Amino acid sequence: MRCLPLLLLPALLYACDDSPTRARDPGLTPDAAVAPDGGGEGEEKFSLDWDGRFHRLKALCEPYRDGNTYDCIVPVSGARDSYFIVHVVKNLLGLNPLLVSYNKQFNTRRGIRNLEHLRECFDADLIVSTTSPDTARKIARSTMKLAASFYWMNHAGTTAFPVRMAVTHRI
Questions:
Q1: What span, in angstroms and rounded, lies between the C-alpha atoms of 144 and 138?
Q2: 136: number of CA atoms within 13 Å, CB side?
């Protein structure tokens, strides 16, 4: 494997020729023996016992079923993976999820429609957190200086907001 430095900022980014994606983790150092994004793990999926894993997952979920409230939190964006995850949680595992989404300020009409369709399609409650545009600009300026990323608040929001809702709703 050959990894080439792409850009010198606070962190060095690498593009590896045997990887379909770029390694973006700050502090990541390429290793000649291991692809930075976990390359080689793709073959493992063909040898796994998926039915057995699903039954173990179902057993793990059983103690969290509560007929009156939400059973779990599912962070969603409205993209395809959100539909699949909510389908598995609601239809296959039989849980009652509370959907949560952090508004990243870069919305399209289609994206907003997809999120609303997701909520309607699965008849689930959805809580969206939206930071005011002025606050978002201030945070983006600050994090651009501190972390060389105007998008940092979105990473933090999509990570922290679901946890905050879980604590708030005692899920």
A1: 10
A2: 14
